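FIELD: query
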Amino acid sequence: MSKRPLTRRSFLAATGQVAAAGTLLPWWAERVVAQDSRIPLPFTVDAHCHIFNVDDLPIDGFALAFAHGIGVPTFLDAALTPFSRGLHKKLVEVANDRRNATISAQDAAKAIRTALGLAQRSLTAWAGKVLGKPVPEAPQELIEAVIAALEVITRDVYRGGDSKGRPLTVPEQLKADYGSVSLFLPAIVDYKYWVDHGRSTKSEPAKNGLRNTVDLHAKALDKINRVPNAKQHMHAYMAFNPWRQIQFDAGRDAVDPMRLLQEALGVGDYEDKNRGFVGVKLYPASGFLPHGNANIGEHKGTQFGRDLDDVMENLFEFCAEHDVPVLTHASNGNGFSKDYAWRGSPWPWKWVLDQFPDLRVSFGHFGHLEGVHDDQTVLCCVAWAKHIVSRLMVTHPNVYADLSFSPLLGAKDDRERYMKYLLKELLPEGRDVLPKRLLYASDWWLYALVPDFKNSHACFQAMLHDVSAGSGMSDESSVQLQHDFMGLNALRFLGLRDADGKVVETSKTFERLNAYYNRPDIRGTRSPGWMPSFLKAGNLPQEPGTPYDVLHKSCRE
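FIELD: result
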């Protein structure tokens, strides 16, 4: 979940469709678009977002783990803990007040601003003393964005938006912020044990245990999915924490992650507990690899390292058997210790995919710009995105990547560097696969830290239009490119649509979702066999087109 400032520019210039047009659009090319043209609004899937709140996240431990990841030594934990714990305590208090409708939105933001300001000033002064020189305060724009994001996570996941004066719930706010998105795929997180790994002080745990978090998420999704004639639906990825699984297997934790996953999906002995989840989410940057833990760092040669490998292999065997999609964090950022962020890299996945060649895996963030350099040095050959394409996508049919927090919407230098890399390195190798394997995703609510975050899907849509128009693509090919990236590819990743965009009724995800929507409490008064549009045969619904100049103005230059 790397954070980069986002804006807008041209995007997929040379996909397979562009190849058919016989040209590659130079990365510096100008847009060639008529101002009165309209961009059709495709069926859109947000393939990677979040709806957990402060009660689900161990903010105290998460903040210190992040500090370790950027190089702050653990012996300073005792000095930093009062700041992280104070912010954690205040956010929990605000969340309780909002749940009980005893505080207004304005007062909630004011309380958060005060707590954040106090923590920032204290930390700045403390850091200045330690370093022996003044430390600049954070930019006001960033502070305001952090306050807005923290305001969102003090809301409830399930109860809200009602006559009692409670604000919209977190998932309801997600729907409101992205009103043109038809299907959201939020990911639950579980950082227990990892946030305290190597710490000299123990952190405040998340208020909700994992089972309670899953229950509240499931109720929130049911509430959204049972709405008659709903145009927006939501299905989640279940978090899988291998350390928790090891603890459970040893009798040291009461929660069995594998059982929770089976219940959430409605698999095997738990078909009757189907909760409408569609996959599993991994966060390797917390400290583990998908394979090879017994050969690295602090896990090398240890029983714990071997246990991690066994647990992960059991998970992948289960996912392969039941065709369960896996979303994995793939960005060199937000590591829980100085040596952890790189564990989100794609290299260890080759062994996994060689063992389970049909496993469905999506690499969240597509590696960002890791390994990509302007001078095209040798480091470019180890760029994460290049490895995902050349070693995994082209050799395995179910490997995908999402562009959440993409540099393509980032600062000018980042987006131009990324565009250049796409055209010169990635697209020549992945021409036959990338158009059908890249997914739109927002990374909301974390993406709310970015100015103009509500325009991300419109900016991607406008960029796709720019590229196709500027490269001479036919209108039909341009529309297909937008439909694939904005929604169809995500449905392909889930196994719900084939290469031609047709519904795959024999897929296991389809069968599980069909069973979910036929639960009496979800189907309600609808006829048996009812299901939302993305599970129906035929073309997906489209909304009226949006004038290009409107989208142009909505995206920051």
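FIELD: remark
DSSP finds 18 helices and eleven strands in the chain.
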